[in-house]
Amino acid sequence: MFNNLSDKLDKALHVLKGHGSITEVNVAETLKEVRRALLDADVNFKIAKDFTNRVKEKALGQDVLTTLQPGQLMVKIVKDELTELMGGDVEGINLSGTPSIILMSGLQGSGKTTFSGKLANYLKNKKTKKPLLVACDVYRPAAIDQLHVVGDQIGVEVFSDRGNTDPVAISQAGIAHAKANGHNVVIIDTAGRLAVDEAMMTEISNIHKAISPQETLFVVDSMTGQDAVNTAKSFNDVLNFDGVILTKLDGDTRGGAAISIKSVVNKPIKFIGTGEKMEAIDVFYPSRMADRILG
Ligand code: GDP
């Protein structure tokens, strides 16, 4: 995960690690390399610039030039800032409703259906949760089939209504079904298009208003880099969502989306998808991710 970024940051900081004492020039060069590594990872220019400015301020504030092990101190400062950039403290998902309603949003192909299954499985394994999956993609019968396949695989019931073309009505019927059958979590999988368009935004916004979910999650493919960040912004403007799900982190992603998304939409990344299997879900811990990136 993020091997290229890891290597480049390691090389950038390596210069300082060997020095017993360092100069302002060493620090400036290192920060330039750090910024370059972030830009190569597809982090937005302004975010990368602000990041290195903050690291510089901290480094000067902590007298990095006179400390005994300047390299170590710089690594720590970069790690702390990276953690902060990716979200700081961990926030869980809100499961306070009876039932708790979770609305999934995102583009087609982002991994919504797969993640809906993963989350249902994750919650089911917590024993106190009995999730219901609701299929609200009225445009693609294959999407409904896919959710049923996922549900069968993990032993979670799926609610669908193939003849119905109104996703608001289906989501409401799904919630009513959950209440009548003792499900305490309802996960609503919605339709996505290949790009942000007004019809999709109106539809998801109508569902959102009609069902008032405890948790609205935005699912995004981490491989799409800066596009992921732009798409997040469009969805957040309409839905004011609660958290981000970053999928396909097992692939050859450069990491820009993971690093930038929080500071653009100011919403936490809550889970990551790390594979196609139902078990490939992890809670997102910014500090662990920073540790991983910085080795
Ligand atoms: P949706 O259109 O948003 O519902 O997306 P899908 O759930 O159908 O996922 C699109 C494709 O991405 C499928 O082939 C999934 O198997 C795959 N996929 C989803 N999540 C992950 C992930 O975390 N890692 C990998 N490698 N593939 C994933």
From TrEMBL:
Q: What is its main location?
A: cytoplasm
Keywords of the record, alphabetical order, are: Cytoplasm, GTP-binding, Hydrolase, Nucleotide-binding, Ribonucleoprotein, RNA-binding, Signal recognition particle
Domain SRP54-type proteins GTP-binding, by residue range, is 268-281
The cellular location(s) given in this protein's UniProt record come to: Cytoplasm
Question: Where is GTP bound in this sequence?
Answer: 106-113, 189-193, 247-250
Task: Indicate the family of this protein.
Answer: Belongs to the GTP-binding SRP family. SRP54 subfamily.
The protein depicted here goes by the name Signal recognition particle protein
Lineage, uppermost ranks: Bacteria, Pseudomonadati, Bacteroidota, Flavobacteriia, Flavobacteriales
Q: Which gene encodes it?
A: ffh
Whole sequence portion shown: 1 to 295 of 442
